[in-house]
Amino acid sequence: MTTASASLAALDDFRPDSPNRPAARWYFIYVALKEAILTHAIEPGTKLPEDELGEIYSSSRTLVRSALQALAHDRLVTLELNRGAFVAKPTRLEAREIFEARAIIEPTVAALAAQAATPADIERLRRHLEEEHVALHEGRNGEAVDLSGKFHVAIAEIAHQTVLTEFVRSLCSRSSLIVALYWRRRDAMCESHAHHALVDAIAANSPQDAREIMSSHLVDLLSGLDLSDRPPEPKKLTDILRRPA
Ligand SMILES: [Zn+2]
Questions:
Q1: Which fold has domain 3-87?
Q2: Residue-wise DSSP of 71-119
Q3: Cα→Cα distances 140→137, 146, 176, 200, Å
Q4: How many whole angstroms from 154 Cα to the centroid of ligand 1?
Q5: What is the pTM (predicted TM-score) of this model?
Q6: CATH of 92-223, one of 3.30.70.360, 1.10.150.20, 1.20.120.530, 1.20.120.910
Q7: Which residues pair with 78 in a beta bridge?
């Protein structure tokens, strides 16, 4: 097991509903920081000093470090050698590339999920949609962004493709902060009607429908991001150099 997947498994044990849950102070710090980052309360690039966070949360640096490592695993924080932790700062170019990669991978993953899904899987997806809905309506926007990413990961898990699931997990983690930073529409980031339509197609075991709905959902997501502030197109020589009069 890699360090990343080991820490992820450990993370699952600390979820509030886990039967294995110990008194997890670091998980509380992790959740609080995650919400602050995903709601843009802390600006990208902000330094996150362990001692200051320790004071704020009345915790040891060891606990703060565990929380920061879990956030780094989620790609919300970058850990720099000898400099410490910073809120991640995805660029517009990175944002575009991540959504382009998702558009290549996820429609196929959705089609595979539609072939493999059991009634229990559908039940799980519907419960997930309900949680997303509640988070949004209770104004927990950071959590709603996080949950809508995890919905995509859940679809990949249903497809029983471990390698593709890891790709989707990584791309969705990186998408969360991008959506938080660059989303320009007022409506919910993963409009629930698209997610409901996906669950319906997967429940009906319709790979083609699942593929098409996922594909248009990702195009729609990309179009909702304000990635316009890109470097200007390189000019053509004919535009720069004047012809002799
Ligand atoms: Zn979505």
A1: Arc Repressor Mutant, subunit A (1.10.10)
A2: HHHTTSEEEETTTEEEE----HHHHHHHHHHHHHHHHHHHHHHHHH--H
A3: 8, 10, 14, 26
A4: 11
A5: 0.73
A6: 1.20.120.530
A7: 86
- Report the separation in Å between the CA atom of 53 and the middle of ligand 1, taken as the mean of its atom positions: 32
Cα–Cα distance measured from residue 209 to residue 114, given in angstroms and rounded to the nearest whole number: 9
Scan for tokens 């429609």, then name that residue.
107
* Cα 67 to ligand 1 centre (Å): 26
Report domain extents, the chain.
3-87, 92-223
CA 149 to centroid of ligand 1, rounded, Å? 7
> Digits of tens for pLDDT over the chain (245 positions)?
334 444 444 455 445 555 445 458 899 999 889 888 887 788 889 999 999 999 999 999 999 999 999 999 888 999 999 899 999 989 889 999 999 999 999 999 999 999 999 999 999 999 999 998 898 888 888 888 888 889 999 999 999 999 999 999 989 888 888 887 887 765 555 667 899 999 999 999 999 999 999 999 999 888 888 887 655 455 566 565 665 55
